[in-house]
Every structure is written in C-alpha cells, then in structure tokens.
Amino acid sequence: MGNESTGGEAGNAAAGGTGVLVRRRRLVLAAALAAVAVSGGGLTAAGFVQSPAQAAADTRAPRPSVLTAPVQLQVLRSTVVLRGTFSNGRTVSSLPSSVATTSATAPGAGAALMVTGVFVHQDQKVAAGVPLVEYSGRPVFVLPGEIPAYRDLLPGATGKDVVQLQKALESLGYSTTSDNSGTFGHATKMALTRLYEKMGYPPPVTGAATAATVKAARQRVDALRSQAAQASVRIASTGTASSAAGAPAAADGSPTQGSIKHQLAQAEEDLAQASALDGTMLPASEVVFVPSLPARVVSVPVAVGDPVKGPVVTLARGAMQLTGMLDPSDQGLVKAGMSVQVLSETSGLQTTGTIDSVGSLVTPGAAGTGTADPGGAAVAGTGGAYLPLRIKPVHSWDSRLAGQDVRITLTAASTSGAVLAVPEAAVLADAQARTAVTVQDPSGAQRTVTVTTGVSADGMVQVTPTSGTLHAGDRVVVGQ
What are the residue boundaries of the Peptidoglycan binding-like domain, all occurrences included (predicted)? Predict the structure, then answer.
C-alpha cells in the first residue's frame, strides 16, 4: 500500500515538471517574436530617416541625356506636291440666230429654228470645212482663225476678218489670190461657193435686195445695148455720121450714138458694182473660227428635233490647260522649266509636263482678284492665297483629263548620288555664323565638325564637312 502511494506522487511530480517546461518554451518563443517585431519596426522607421546630404542628392535634377541620330548616306530629293485643275481653255460656241437665204427669195419670216442634224460627239476632234451640227437645213462648220465670227461677211466687205476667211479658204485648197487681200471679191465668192458645194449645201446668198439691184442694172445695160444697136443701123441706112459724143440727141430727136455709148459704159459699171455686192456670202451663224485644228468638241447639248434656244455646239479654241495652285511659301523652290508628274486619282491617268510660267499671287475673295485661270475656267478647290502655275504638256494632254482635279508633283532639288545627310535639327550655327554638327563618340566625348549644307528633303539635309571628319554611321547630337 505504501508503495502505491509513493508511485502516484512520483507521477504527479513528473507531470508537473512537463508543464513547467512547456510554459518556459512559450515564454522564450514570445520573447523571440517580440524581438523580431521590434527589429522590423526599427528597420522600417530607419527607412524614413534621411541625412541632409541624402535629401539634397535625392532632390537634385537628373543629369541631362543626349539625343543623337546616325549620319546617313542617301540620295535626297526635295519634292513639292500641289493640286491643279484641267480646263478646256478658251471656248467658243455656235448659237444660230437666223437661217441664211439660198436663193433670191428670203426664207419664211418667223419660222422657229430647229436642230435637223448632229454629226459629232463630245471630245471628238474635228477638221475644217466639215459640218458639225445642222439647224433648219443649214450647216455649222469650223474654219481656222483667231477672230470670232462677229458679223456676216458679204461680198464687197473689207477687213481683217476677210483676210482670215481668205487664208482659211486657201488652206482648204480654194484659191482667192485674184482678189486683193482683205477684200471680199469675186474669187472669194467662188471659193466659198465651192466649199459649200463640197459640204453638200447650197451656198448662202445676200438675198432679194441685192438680186433685185443686179436685175435692174442688167436690164438697164440690155436696154442701152439695144439702143446702141438701133443707132448703128440708122447711121448705116442714112449714111450720116453720128453727132459728137457730147450732143444730147440727133436732128430727129433720137439719142446720138456717142450719148448711148456713154450711158452704156456707166450702166455697165453700175452692173459690175451691183454684181460685186451680190451672191455667195458667209453667215456668222454658220461658221466657228478656232485658232488651231483639229478642234476638240467640248459639248453638243442638242439632239435632232430640239428647238434652237442656246448653243448647239461648243468647241475648245485651243488645247486643254492645266493650272496648278502653289503655296506661296514654296515659291523659292519652283521655277519655269521644271518637270512635273500629273496624276488623276479619279481615273488613274498619269502624264508629265513642265512648268511654263509662275503667275502673280491670287487671293480668293480679295478685291480686284478672282479665281479664274488665264484660260477662263474657274479654279476649283482654292481656299487660300496661291500662285498659279501654268503647266504645259510634254505631249498633248489626254482629253479624258478635261475638268479633272489632279495631283501635281515636282522635284525641286535632287542630289546626283548618295550624300552624307543628317536630321535638320543636328545643324546649328556657331558664334562665327558657320554651320556645324556635334559628333558624339562611343565614349561620350563630343567634337564639333563645321559643314556646308545642300539639298534638304523629308527632314534631312545634305552636309559636307569643311573641317574635321564625318562618316556615315557617326552619331550627331540632335537634342538634349
């Protein structure tokens, strides 16, 4: 019994020792955790504590960086791109206002003019002496000449427009050389008559008034010739000589032979004058003069059966014209003779030309200025001031470009081969007003190289070193 009591006490003592150990271990662990927490807090707090020197260092501006770009070896081309408009140039239209007489009888008064034939179409090229349109049975045709048909050309007329008509007839093979230049005489009438017959139309004539004058003059001549013949018979039968030319009448009261001859000579002169003013003429309603042939048809706004209420055909008096609109700031880059490339984005057509002339500044909307090009067509798409460039074709312009807005590209300057080129920002002027670039070596060291500049294009400029060395691949300073 006593032994059992002793064993229980020993077990309790052992259990109590184990508990003490556990509590001690817990105390040690807690102390360690507290130490770690204190150390971490100290480190964190230390991170927010700076010395005055460190604070100054942290607030100092960063060391500036250097921006560089490589020197390149390339061909430079400076191009200028602008807009342009094709126009028909100067045009001339035929607007018939009357029907010509083709015999001694005048046409019916008040008859409405009617389109009776259309023989051409838009953009067609036409030659001289060929009917284009027909109205009320009469042709409209073209002849070469600068002076518009501003009046009917009648026999006996004189002037520069008659000279023009005679030259036009001569160019078609109809001679007028027996007439004085500038005088609408018999030869000109005959040449014009042949032209109308070739076209298949009766020639227009001056009309009933001149025909009646000729008829009366001819009757007068015939009567006097009859009297002269009777006087000759009377003299032959009586054997008496006629009185002097100035005597008004013979003894029996009849006109003397001399008087009759005098009157006959005057009557024949009157007949010649009347005949000179009668016959074939050229109505202004039937002819269109253009400076050069073949002429291009701009429009034919009528069809057979239409009444004539406006132009029946419009022709370009010259070739199409291209006018470019140059930004005034590019004036120094452009001069006459430069080649240009022309592109129509609408049709895809491309062609080439050269600058013929550079016009004076045009400011749309300003007093005394306009936006019409020298060819008479309005310039499209002009919003600000521009310099009009007249551009001529290397060959003739394609008629499909008429009226189109196009892109014009010209090369203002170009290097003959590959040259050293740097960004424009790399070129600076030094104190002596010399241009130079700054080269940065791989080590960061910098050196100045003076240069001369040449062609610039797309932000790059040609440079040629005048002191120091410069090679493709070197890096030049463009900014900091």
Answer: 158-216
Burial of 72 (0-12, 13-18, 19+ CB in 10 A): middle
CA distance 309 to 96: 9
Distance CA 159, CA 152 (A): 12
Task: Output b/e per residue, 372-389; b: 16+ Cβ within 10 A.
Answer: ebebebebbebeeebbbb
Question: Which domain, by its residues, includes 332?
Answer: 78-88+319-414
**pTM exceeding the 0.85 threshold for the entire prediction:** no
Reading phi first (left if > 0) and then psi (alpha if -120 to 50, else beta), residue 275 is in alpha
The domain that contains 377 carries what CATH number?
2.40.30.170
Task: Identify whether residues 212 and 201 lie together within a single domain.
Answer: no
